[in-house]
């Protein structure tokens, strides 16, 4: 399958290293696009839940694929989030075409775009980190339970179901948190005269235009690769939300024999450090 040309691809909240990460689907998607710029908008590797005993092959393949894209000319911007905050000591550094940063400002066809993860708006992360981490552990447990239930559902021919997504879409406090997050991001973007503000963090894909007495902007969120399997794509002056559909890749799903087999994560670290 020929990779689609895209000006900008934004992914976030992949949470590599956790049971809920849909790494095979993400890898398949990354193989299907050829972006000029790839924005990884935070929580790429989940250090909060990271364990050396669990980092499957496809999690490694996602990292390898991103390095391959960079080596072929794609500008890769890794914006750091709360779950991969340990890398913030390396912010504002570059390895060849790979840049680590806390935020990114770009001009897209004459319009100003502001990319950042979004945890700056989350009081639980900023002021009570242990509460946030405890919530992360609970969320990871719910995802593990979901993996087991979905395995059973697919065995009996039923559609997969997301407990956490159902909860977030129906609990008033969760809906209010999402609304407050979006309002805070757009107000700040309008105040600073950005045309686009692009976030992650809340696992809620969205594109909507916001107008206030002070101006207008477009708020975008790339969602996640745990529940929604979504990305943002910018091409020909338009934004869209991409949602993974396995039916689009029926002929691509049996390609293990075509790809380089990676031994471990240390091998990848050496490759990144030596990349230029």
List the defining traits of the structure above.
single chain; 276 residues; alpha/beta; Purple Acid Phosphatase, chain A, domain 2; 5-stranded mixed beta sheet
Q: Count the beta strands.
A: 12
Radius of gyration: 18 Å
| Order of strands in the sheet with most strands | 4-5-3-2-1-11-12
Query: Unreliable stretches, pLDDT < 50, 5 or more residues?
Result: 124-135, 256-263
Structural commentary:
With 276 residues, the chain is of the alpha/beta class. The protein has one domain: Metallo-dependent phosphatases (Purple Acid Phosphatase, chain A, domain 2). The chain is built from seven helices and twelve strands. The protein has helices at residues 23-31, 57-71, 123-127, 129-155, 163-170, 172-191, 265-274; strands at 4-11, 33-41, 75-79, 93-95, 98-101, 103-108, 111-116, 196-199, 206-212, 215-221, 230-235, 238-243. Helix 1 packs parallel to helix 2, helix 2 packs parallel to helix 7 (265-274) and helix 5 packs across helix 6. It is globular and about 55 Å long. The model is unreliable at 124-135 and 256-263 (pLDDT under 50).
Q: In terms of topology, how is this protein built?
A:
Layout (H helix, E strand, L loop, with lengths): L3 E8 L11 H9 L1 E9 L15 H15 L3 E5 L13 E3 L2 E4 L1 E6 L2 E6 L6 H5 L1 H27 L7 H8 L1 H20 L4 E4 L6 E7 L2 E7 L8 E6 L2 E6 L21 H10 L2
Parallel strand pairs: 1-2, 2-3, 3-5, 7-8, 8-10
Antiparallel strand pairs: 1-11, 4-5, 6-7, 9-10, 11-12
Helix pairs in contact: 1-2, 2-7, 5-6
């Amino acid at each position: 399958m020929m990779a689609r040309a895209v000006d900008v691809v934004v992914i976030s909240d992949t949470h590599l290293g956790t049971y809920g990460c849909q790494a095979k689907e993400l890898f398949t998607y990354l193989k299907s696009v050829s972006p000029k710029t790839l924005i990884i908008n935070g929580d790429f590797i989940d250090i909060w839940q990271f364990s050396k005993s669990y980092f499957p092959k496809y999690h490694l393949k996602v990292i390898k694929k991103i390095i391959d894209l960079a080596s072929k000319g794609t500008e890769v911007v890794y914006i750091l989030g709360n779950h991969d905050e340990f890398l913030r000591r390396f912010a504002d550094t570059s390895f060849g075409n790979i840049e680590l940063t806390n935020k990114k400002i770009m001009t897209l066809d004459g319009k100003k775009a502001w990319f950042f993860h979004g945890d700056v708006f989350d009081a639980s992360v900023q002021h009570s980190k242990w509460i946030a981490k405890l919530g992360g552990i609970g969320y990871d447990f719910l995802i593990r339970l979901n993996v087991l239930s979905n395995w059973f559902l697919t065995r009996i021919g039923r559609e997969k179901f997301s407990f956490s997504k159902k909860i977030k879409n129906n609990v008033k406090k969760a809906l209010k948190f999402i609304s407050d997050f979006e309002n805070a991001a757009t107000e700040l973007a309008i105040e600073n005269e950005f045309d686009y503000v692009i976030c992650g963090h809340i696992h809620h894909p969205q594109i909507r235009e916001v107008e206030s007495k002070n101006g207008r902007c477009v708020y975008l969120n790339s969602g996640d690769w745990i529940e929604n399997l979504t990305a943002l794509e910018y091409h020909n002056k338009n934004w869209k939300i991409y949602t993974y559909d396995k039916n689009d890749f029926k002929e691509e799903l049996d390609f293990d024999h075509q790809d380089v087999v990676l031994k471990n994560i240390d091998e990848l670290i050496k490759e990144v450090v030596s990349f230029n």
